[in-house]
Amino acid sequence: MKKWFHRQNKWIQRGLLLGSFSIALVAIAMTLILLYALISGPPPLTTEQNTIYYSQDGSVIEEDFGSKRRYWVDLDDISPYIIQATLTSEDRHFYDHSGFDMKRIGAAVLKNIRNLAKVEGASTITQQYARNLYLSHEKTWVRKTKEAIYALRLEMFYDKDEILAGYLNSIYYGHGAYGIEAASRYFFDKHANELSLSESAMLAGIPKGPSYYSPFNNEENANDRQKQILASMEAAGHIDASKSALASQEKLAYHEPNKEDAPDIAPYFQDAVAVEAMNRLDIDREQLTVGGYHIYTTLDIPTQKVLEKSMEQHIDKNSEIQAAGIVIAPETGSIQALAGGRNYETSSFNRVTQAKRMVGSTIKPFLYYEALGSGFTPTTQLVSKPTKFELGNGEVYAPSNFDGYYANEPITMAQALALSDNIYAVKTNVYLGPERLKETLGKFGISGKIPAVPSLALGTATLSLYDMTKAYSKLARPEEENVPHTITKITDSHGNMLYEYEPPDNESMIDPKRAFLTAHMMTGMFDSSLDGYMRVTGSSIAGKLSRPYSGKSGTTNTDSWMIGFSPELVTGIWTGYDQGKQITRTSELQYSKDIWADVMEQSHQDRTFSTLKAPEGVVGVYVDPATGLRATPYCDTQRLMYFEEDKIPESFCTEHTFEENRQPREKEKNKGGWKDLLEWLF
């Protein structure tokens, strides 16, 4: 028994010793923290953390100021109602604690344990103020420790009224309004000392979630939050039941806020950057605005200016038609320029990323890419004439060509693409099976509600300009798996890396041989040697182009598209009316092509001349464009076309002979005499 008691006393002694040692360590740690806080001195009560956007060359394109609407007012110039409402909703014991509400922390911990999730926080006004002023919103223990030290320094060197005034002057109320004076002016067009009880309760509820509780974003959520705060104020004894009831029923007269000035450079592009940054950092718009981030973008300012200027020059200023454009470097996936509309201040809706329209014939390159994998070649011939297709459900589908023109004879795939022949496209789609085209679009990164029907070959799917241009970039660079992006990296205000773009580690699903063959066929829209029953679709801008490009236009009743590329750049242009109004003026159908030609030509002025390189296993031969057979010296026109080695045409054209070429010349000789003969000979 003595041994047992001796053993127990030994463990008790060890426990007491360990406890004393732990208490001593905590005391030392607390002393060191207090010493550090004391030595560090008073932190400033205001700070600026502006998020800055940089272009591709490192120049600043925009500074997103956290203080765009910030006005400092003394506590005496703030309505007592907003002070009471804020204290009641955020920190009831603000004047009783030293920066940390231990009772509230304990209650929150117990509640979170019971619910096995974080359902309640316990940050005091001092802690929130410290976080907003000096720290990011990342959820790490390091940040929480720093927050505690900053809160301690605030409490050590400033009195409670100074801290409360600083908090009310810096807290974010949404819509770019920082501080209660800015919020008062923005929501009610009055000063902070003029706020009524009802208005104060409404504003006090917003900082908990500016996007969720702003009456301009969600009035129902805002009203519910206002009533909760009024009830809390009544329970705390700040107001009586009658005042609470009257305030909750009061109809608030909101001020119609003025529209913010659009950024000077690439406003639609900057919106896209903001969305991408929020996704990469997993933050909301308010946190992005005040986070002090340095965002390095892919914007090429000269290309952006060319895009915007071309849209302005070519489109009739009195027309209500809209336009959108995007330029991507396919080798890296970097978005060099983006314009989501003609005027950002009139409409900030981004028609590159947000609008979905019927894509028309711009879908055909993907159809022919798939056909090349099923035995077709650029010279495969099908008859272009009015055709009725009997569908599985018993219905009959009868597509037509533009303005009712047909070859009424066989044409090659290369010519069908250059002329945008609809009959050839639908026949090909029916032969392959519409599901095949839908699957092919998926390989090029296009998904969504795509109808697997014969008319899909004519672009009946509604897709975004962003998705279509992204898909074309895979034709330009099939070996790359880069995702179009606007951001190369993001750092904090101290230069610490928070995000850096890296291409996905995926194996490309695009066949480089078929991609090259398709891309080369797409140069045909600018080549008059492929003229047939009508001129090639790019003939109106072919004279403006100084180098070879691959492209495809598309036209529906309401939309006009032009997408094309070189090895360096892919440009997509869309024009049309927002409300689906039909395009009736012929000149308006030309806008997309003219803009595209300007952007491509001017963006390539300082670039080395280059062409698409044929991959191994692909060879080029000259063919007669009409027959699709190998050309002879007697063919009037010849075009270089590419084929996989085992699919080169073996037969030579026999429709053009020496005699056929000589006869017209002999007729001219006889008609013009010896002078014409000499000109013909020499």
UniProtKB/TrEMBL annotation:
<dbReference type="Pfam" id="PF00912">
    <property type="entry name" value="Transgly"/>
</dbReference>
<keyword id="KW-0378">Hydrolase</keyword>
<keyword id="KW-0328">Glycosyltransferase</keyword>
<dbReference type="InterPro" id="IPR023346">
    <property type="entry name" value="Lysozyme-like_dom_sf"/>
</dbReference>
<feature type="transmembrane region" description="Helical">
    <location>
        <begin position="16"/>
        <end position="39"/>
    </location>
</feature>
<dbReference type="InterPro" id="IPR001264">
    <property type="entry name" value="Glyco_trans_51"/>
</dbReference>
<protein>
    <submittedName>
        <fullName>Penicillin-binding protein 2D</fullName>
    </submittedName>
</protein>
<keyword id="KW-0812">Transmembrane</keyword>
<feature type="domain" description="Penicillin-binding protein transpeptidase">
    <location>
        <begin position="326"/>
        <end position="568"/>
    </location>
</feature>
<feature type="domain" description="Glycosyl transferase family 51">
    <location>
        <begin position="66"/>
        <end position="233"/>
    </location>
</feature>
<dbReference type="InterPro" id="IPR050396">
    <property type="entry name" value="Glycosyltr_51/Transpeptidase"/>
</dbReference>
<keyword id="KW-0472">Membrane</keyword>
<keyword id="KW-0808">Transferase</keyword>
<keyword id="KW-0121">Carboxypeptidase</keyword>
<keyword id="KW-0961">Cell wall biogenesis/degradation</keyword>
<keyword id="KW-1133">Transmembrane helix</keyword>
<keyword id="KW-1003">Cell membrane</keyword>
<dbReference type="InterPro" id="IPR036950">
    <property type="entry name" value="PBP_transglycosylase"/>
</dbReference>
<dbReference type="InterPro" id="IPR001460">
    <property type="entry name" value="PCN-bd_Tpept"/>
</dbReference>
<keyword id="KW-0511">Multifunctional enzyme</keyword>
<dbReference type="Pfam" id="PF00905">
    <property type="entry name" value="Transpeptidase"/>
</dbReference>
<dbReference type="InterPro" id="IPR012338">
    <property type="entry name" value="Beta-lactam/transpept-like"/>
</dbReference>
<keyword id="KW-0645">Protease</keyword>
<keyword id="KW-0573">Peptidoglycan synthesis</keyword>
<keyword id="KW-0133">Cell shape</keyword>
